[in-house]
Design a protein that fits this description.
- The complex is a heterotrimer of chains A (about 200), B (about 150) and C (about 1000).
- Chain A is built from 4 helices and 11 strands, in the order E-E-E-H-E-E-E-H-E-E-H-E-E-E-H.
- By secondary structure, chain A is of the alpha+beta class.
- Chain A has a 6-stranded antiparallel beta sheet with strand order 1-2-8-11-10-9. Chain A has a 5-stranded antiparallel beta sheet with strand order 4-5-6-3-7.
- The radius of gyration of chain A is 18 Å and the shape is globular.
- Chain B has one domain: Folate-binding superfamily (Folate-binding fold).
- Chain B is globular, with a radius of gyration of 18 Å.
- Chain B has about 150 residues and is of the alpha+beta class.
- The longest helix of chain B has 29 residues.
- With about 1000 residues, chain C is an alpha+beta fold.
- Among the domains of chain C are: about 200 residues, FAD/NAD(P)-binding domain, CATH 3.50.50.60; about 120 residues, Probable tRNA modification gtpase trme, domain 1 (Gyrase A, domain 2, 2-Layer Sandwich); about 90 residues, Alpha-Beta Plaits, CATH 3.30.70.1400; about 100 residues, Elongation Factor Tu (Ef-tu), domain 3 (Beta Barrel).
- Classes of the chains: A alpha+beta (about 200), B alpha+beta (about 150), C alpha+beta (about 1000).
- At the A-C interface, strand 7 and helix 4 of A face strand 8, strand 15, strand 37, strand 39 and strand 42 of C.
Chain lengths: ~200, ~150, ~1000
């Protein structure tokens, strides 16, 4: 994949870095039972690769790509989430250029930048499971879905990636045009969950 | 809402995460451009609709996104087995005949008995047909269709 | 205190009064009353009018099986709920209840004329009567029947309440919180299982609510239930849901519950959900749904004041209300005797117990006699007196003899107990008929469940409790819990005895009105008539008579109806069959079923990153799938036509800026990417140079067009594929299917990037000048970046994929930038665009401009039966390719034969005429109908560029008809004359594309 149509893509620009307009700006719902807040910007990579490339890619990423369903592996600010037998979602801080890190990897793989495709929503609090269960049909009890588990699933009519980051906190990742729907559904679920 | 066992995620997951994808074990002919009208008809249009055991494709589209195969009993709507794409069609016991418990209670049961034998017959049909079809299209020679043996 | 509330009876607190109204009359009840108990305390027995005959009806039961006492409950104009069971509705301060199905008033109802005409309204009346003349059905019968039919009235305003739904998982779900359910919950919970216990009543306890004779471990039954409730509520692994009906039992133990959260509250907080739908996946289900008492079927059994014996006990023992001062009892089983004794102890007169059994041998019968109650065994009640309230009962020996008349103001009946097997049956479990007791019981389980207590035919409380604990423990053990059961001392009441079918006086030759189904006004005679008229199966009898088809689903009537039909057919009951138990167990509101999915959550509304920008510039939006897309940008005083005309002219003359973000985008990456695209698209891809683009055409295997889009090669092993807006998900699914299951040997992966990129199209002769100041790292001259090329560069400082492509026929660029940068880059582009006289344009202008060029839109020009050749797209098929999806389908005889519909242009003879999309096209408008239709209009627009209307159409052998005149017949008989033309109306040579 040496030759690219970007012979002249300049690293620097005469323009200031353009403004970034995310979605869900200013949205927030909070009660003692649960809070729903938009996640911040992030670097995201959709990584696809066969088993034989896993070791090389793990070295390049600086973390061991998880090999089992629902598994996540974290190293520093970076997280890799198992989404399928040959698919990972890699998350990192917004200023990290994940694509650049993959550019030199020779092992067979596909890396696609999806930093702007997804939006994160953080759901946290004592009633976090009931809130998510307003639209997610999975068993989210700590025994069935322990801390560190993550999976692609559904939230109402939207597809999401759901990641339990600690006992009472989940990160929801959805496509950006679904973020309004997901947030509104979670806010509605949070309202009901606060009732008991 | 059914629970379906995804052979890649190795767990039961809610039906909402899945999408049905039609009959299983129909390999795309490798020599597609050359097949006869009859072979194309058989490949593209003809599908089984058995009462009883049925082999079908599903995709865990909102999960691991993999296509896989399933043996399902269309009478009880129960999944007998799910298995990865590319794996051989498993030998699955024919679905049990419905319990004859109500035979005494239901006058119609005597009449219904021969009808109830039908599903097992229909279920056996695709099993016989599939290998024949593969042979006619030479589908196993290349790696094409390898996941739909 | 009201007259019928007894000072020392019941469990409610006399000081806690609640004010409510019924039909406008102010009344008081007590906190904890149901509307039914409060009305009875006020000596109101007449509560409604029956559906068909408008007969006065009272309160039959004290539970959700109630067929008669249906009322409307009103909070305000938008909150009016019809057909609420008075026996379920709890009262609150300010509750307004109104009776239904009566005019002008409950006690004087003109509709009661139906009752006089009853002989004409017998079973099957509607089927037989309104058959002829044929036209009368539509014009006369149906409108009148519709006006007269229906119970209650729904509010006209939108429902202002909030609803919720929730998925839940547990080890053990217990349906029913009576003695059995409580015991099961305790057994399972103490063994460590996670438990959900649901009961439809306001408090758990079930039959212990009225069983004054039951005691457990030295406590009376109700106190025991309270203690267990306290224990269960304190356990972290238990959730007790009251006012929560388990109404559906689906496959794999998916059980659906409706929880009512605010219907009992005077002033619910506005953020509270009125109802919550639970979808529970349970490892084990324990059905402890109890049994429903049957009424006796005898003439005049529907008068207000005729009530189930257990209901009278509930009203007395729980609510402290005596349902009558002179009470008669008519029974065929033991349990009704307790009602007689309870009422007598409470100081009311019990006139007689009429027992249909010849010689009931039971301690309770002797106890009644010993208490001085007259017991007439082997007798039946053959008539009642009274109009708006029962005033007398007439008894005689069952085989005939001297009649005796008793003055009564309440008549309590019990024909025995019908196990509630509804949920078990919904679970697909098989029912077994107990011929001895004449009831259906749970047989073989179809799922991981157990039936315990009265719903499984158990009568003895001690046995019920033992079974309950055991079932709970067993279920818990299966999921890894351990048992800890103790023995209990239990005192129980007798529930034995019972009968099904009609009693004496409602016999085979009798024409009297002995009601089987109160809610649908079905009598024993109706059922016999159905059999006489040839109905053999209970399914036919049910539909002919409507027995069991009302909103109570025949909870009290089905078994009686079945027994009467069986008797008339002279067959055993199981041979006549049993109608299907369908969910919901009791009616469920639409609100509960809809849950969160209203308003903004009814469906996903997708907006592009530049949505706000478009809104700020006055865009009118249209729905495209789930997307909101800018349709056109009207300026002050412009209508749609004017705005679109201006936008079209401006793009052609200068340039326009368009938000194309909704296009589907799939990143195809891997060394075999080109090989894979070769298979998925008709076009060749291997030789497409890096930095070049090509229009790709995707077929299904049958040869019909599935999707299209421009595909750019970013690198050797990386393609940027675009799809139609609506096609993105199905195209990805289609590609994944082939990649995973047919071509898994190819080293290539697909990633949806639709939402990664904001796409700003700049189209028009000035397009290059507009974007030039913003582009860095890329020569965008015609020579360096010709039509159909792609570059990675920077635009306005943002990393970009810049496409040189056109969907307008003009020189065009599409700027892809990461989505968050979209608005900022759009503002920069727009600032430049204004310097060049450009406009912003929407989807309508895009459609006009592409149609002027003859570019198809998949789904508009195509409908799943259109081939590339039909659309004149043969050029897009790689002639040397050995394989691609659709290659064989294209050779099918029907696809290569003559007579296919082909895409052509149409111009109306009269330039002012415009065509309708979808309009049919004929050769001869004078041809008698049905005319031979040659095809249809697929796109029709007004072209400001051409100064006239134009259209695209699919017409049989269209390309052979160029120059012909055809006709488009219109409603009203006129036909529009059209000329068949080519599909390109603008810049046929294409030179504008290249600048």
């Amino acid at each position: 994949m040496a030759k690219r149509a970007k012979a002249a893509m300049p690293a620097a620009s005469a323009f200031p870095v353009p403004r970034r307009d995310g979605v869900l700006i200013g949205r927030m719902t909070a009660s003692p039972a649960v809070t729903v807040t938009p996640g911040g910007q992030a670097s995201r990579l959709s990584l696809r690769a066969p088993e034989k490339s896993r070791a090389v890619l793990s070295r390049a990423l600086g973390l061991k790509l998880p090999e089992t369903p629902r598994a996540t592996v974290q190293a520093g600010s970076r997280t890799a989430i198992w989404l399928g037998p040959d698919e990972w979602l890699v998350l990192d801080d917004p200023d990290v250029d994940l694509m650049a890190g993959m550019a030199t990897v020779k092992a067979l793989h596909s890396a696609v930048d999806i930093s702007h495709r997804n939006q994160a929503i953080m759901v946290a609090g004592p009633s976090v499971e009931a809130t998510l269960n307003a639209g997610c049909p999975l068993d989210l009890s700590e025994t069935a879905f322990p801390v560190g588990n993550a999976t692609r699933t559904v939230l109402g009519k939207a597809e999401i990636v759901l990641w339990r980051t600690d006992a009472k906190t989940f990160r929801v990742e959805c496509w950006r045009s679904f973020a309004d729907y997901c947030f509104t559904l979670l806010a509605s679920g949070a309202r009901d969950a606060a009732m008991g | 809402m059914l629970l379906i066992r995804c052979p890649y995620c190795e767990e039961d997951r809610p039906e909402l995460e899945f999408r049905h994808a039609g009959q299983a074990h129909i390999a795309r002919p490798a020599n597609m451009a050359e097949i006869s009208d009859e072979e194309f008809e058989e490949y593209f249009f003809i599908r089984q609709n058995p009462k009883g055991l049925y082999f079908e494709r599903w995709r865990h589209i909102h999960g691991c996104a993999r296509f896989f195969n399933a043996a399902r009993d269309t009478v009880s709507d129960k999944f007998v087995k799910t298995y990865k794409a590319g794996e051989k069609k498993p030998s699955v016991a024919k679905p049990k005949a419905p319990p004859a418990k109500r035979a005494a209670a239901q006058p119609a049961s005597a009449k219904a008995a021969p009808k109830k034998a039908a599903p097992t017959k229909a279920a056996a049909k695709p099993a016989r047909k599939a290998p024949a079809k593969r042979a006619s299209t030479g589908g196993t020679k290349t790696r094409r269709g390898a996941n739909k043996p | 205190m009201t007259a019928h509330r007894l000072p020392k009876a019941g469990r409610l607190t006399p000081a806690r009064e609640v004010r409510f109204s019924f039909d406008g009359k102010a009344m008081t009840g007590l906190d904890g009353d149901t509307l039914a108990s409060a009305l009875l305390a006020n000596d109101v027995h007449l509560v409604g009018r029956s559906f068909k005959y408008h007969r006065p009806r009272g309160i039959l039961s004290a539970g959700s099986e109630e067929p008669n006492a249906l009322v409307g409950i009103r909070r305000d104009a938008a909150r009016q709920t019809p057909n609420v069971r008075a026996t379920v509705q709890e009262i609150y301060d300010g509750l307004e209840a109104v009776s239904q199905n009566r005019w002008p008033s409950l006690s004087f109802d003109t509709g009661a004329v139906n009752d006089l005409a009853a002989p004409f309204f017998s079973a099957g009346f509607y089927y037989k009567t309104f058959m002829w003349p044929k036209l009368a059905w539509k014009r006369l019968y149906e409108p009148n029947i519709r006006a007269a039919a229906g119970l209650g009235a729904a509010p006209d305003e939108p429902d202002p309440d909030l609803y919720a739904s929730r998925y839940a998982h547990c080890d053990v779900l217990i349906a029913g919180g009576g003695a059995a359910g409580i015991a099961a919950a305790v057994g399972a919970a103490e063994a460590g299982a996670s438990v959900i216990l649901a009961d439809e009543q306001s408090e758990i306890g079930g039959a212990l609510r009225f069983e004054a004779g039951a005691s457990i471990d030295g406590q009376d039954g109700w106190s025991w239930a309270r203690a267990q409730m306290a224990k269960l509520s304190a356990m972290p692994n238990v959730r007790v849901l009251t006012r929560c009906t388990v109404f559906g039992y689906h496959a794999q133990n998916m059980v659906v519950l409706a929880e009512r959260l605010t219907d009992h509250l005077a002033n619910p907080a506005p953020e509270m959900s009125r109802e919550r739908l639970w979808q529970v996946r349970a490892k084990h289900v324990i059905l402890a749904t109890g049994a429903i008492e049957r009424h006796m079927v005898f003439p005049g059994n529907d008068r207000p004041g005729v009530m189930l014996a257990s209901a009278a006990r509930s009203y007395l023992n729980h609510f402290g209300v005596a349902v009558g001062k002179r009470v008669g009892i008519y029974t065929a089983n033991d349990s009704a005797y307790y009602a007689a004794l309870d009422l007598k102890r409470a100081g009311q007169k019990v006139q007689a117990v009429v027992d249909l059994r010849e010689d009931p041998k039971s301690a309770i019968v002797e106890e009644a006699r010993a208490a001085g109650i007259e017991v007439l065994t082997g007798h039946g009640v053959v008539a009642t007196n009274g109009r708006l309230r029962v005033s007398g009962m007439i008894a005689r020996p069952r085989d005939g003899g001297r009649e005796r008349s008793f003055s009564v103001d309440a008549l309590l009946t019990s024909a025995g107990w019908t196990p509630s097997v509804h949920l078990f049956s919904q679970s697909r479990g098989k029912l077994a008929f107990d011929a001895g007791r004449q009831i259906f019981l749970p047989g073989e389980n179809a799922q991981e469940c157990a039936s315990i207590g009265a719903c499984s035919g158990m009568e003895d409380l001690a046995a019920v409790l033992d079974a309950g604990y055991a079932a709970g423990e067993q279920a818990a053990r299966k999921v890894g819990g351990s048992a800890s059961s103790t023995m209990r001392k239990v005192q129980s009441e007798s529930w034995s005895g019972g009968m099904v079918g009609a009693g004496p006086g409602a016999g085979a030759d009798d024409t009297s009105r002995a009601f089987v189904d109160f809610q649908n006004d079905v009598t024993a005679k109706d059922i016999r008539q159905a059999v006489r008229e040839g109905m053999r199966s209970i399914e036919h009898v049910k539909r002919f008579t409507t027995n069991g088809m009302a909103t109570d689903q025949g909870k009290t009537s089905n078994l009686h109806g079945l027994a009467i039909a069986a008797e008339a057919l002279d067959k055993p009951i199981p041979e006549v069959g049993l109608t299907t138990f369908r969910q919901p167990f009791t009616p469920v509101t639409f609100g509960a079923l809809v849950g969160h999915n209203r308003g903004a959550l009814f469906d996903v509304t997708r907006r592009t990153p530049m949505h706000q920008w478009a809104e700020n510039h006055g865009a009118v939006f249209e729905d495209v799938g789930n997307w909101k897309r800018a349709w056109y940008f009207p300026r002050a005083g412009e209508d749609k036509h004017a705005a679109v005309a201006r936008e079209c002219r401006t793009v052609r003359a200068a340039a326009g800026v368009f938000d194309a973000s909704t296009l589907g985008k799939i990143e195809v990456v891997g060394p075999d990417a080109a090989a894979f695209l070769e298979l998925m698209y008709t076009n060749p891809w291997q030789k497409l140079g890096v930095g070049r683009c090509r229009y790709g055409l995707m077929l299904r295997e049958d040869g019909f067009i599935y999707d299209d889009g421009v595909i750019g090669r970013i690198a050797d092993g990386r393609f940027h594929v675009t799809t139609t807006t609506g096609g993105a998900p199905r195209v990805l699914q289609h590609m994944e299917d082939y990649l995973q299951t047919e071509f898994p040997h190819l080293n290539v992966w697909l990633t949806s990037a639709s939402e990664q990129w904001a796409v700003i199209a700049v189209q028009g002769p000035k397009a290059r000048e507009i974007i030039a100041p913003l582009v860095e790292g890329c020569d965008i001259s015609d020579e360096a970046m010709p039509h159909m090329s792609v570059r990675e560069c920077r635009v306005g400082g943002a990393p970009a994929r810049l496409f040189r492509m056109s969907f307008t026929g003009e020189r065009g660029f599409e700027i892809n930038v990461p989505a968050d940068y979209g608005p900022a880059v759009m503002e920069m582009v727009w600032a430049q665009a204004q310097n060049h006289g450009a406009c912003m344009y929407g989807t309508e202008t895009m459609h006009v401009l592409r149609a002027e060029k003859g570019y198809i839109i998949v789904g508009q020009e195509t409908d799943g039966t259109v081939t590339p050749n039909d659309c004149g797209l043969d050029w897009a098929i790689g002639k040397k390719k050995a394989d691609f999806v659709g290659i064989r389908g294209l050779k099918r005889p029907d696809l290569v034969g003559g007579g296919r519909k082909q895409l052509v242009g149409l111009l109306t003879k009269n330039q002012k005429h415009s065509l309708d999309e979808g309009a049919q096209i004929v050769a001869d408008p004078q041809q008698p109908k049905p005319m031979t239709m040659l095809g249809h209009v697929t796109s029709a627009y007004w072209s400001p560029t051409l100064g006239r209307s134009f259209a695209l159409a699919l017409i049989a052998d269209g390309r052979a008809r160029l120059g012909e005149t055809l006709f488009v017949p219109m409603p009203g008989g006129k036909a529009i004359e059209v000329d068949v033309t080519g599909t390109v109306f603008y810049d046929e040579s294409g030179e504008k594309l290249h600048g």
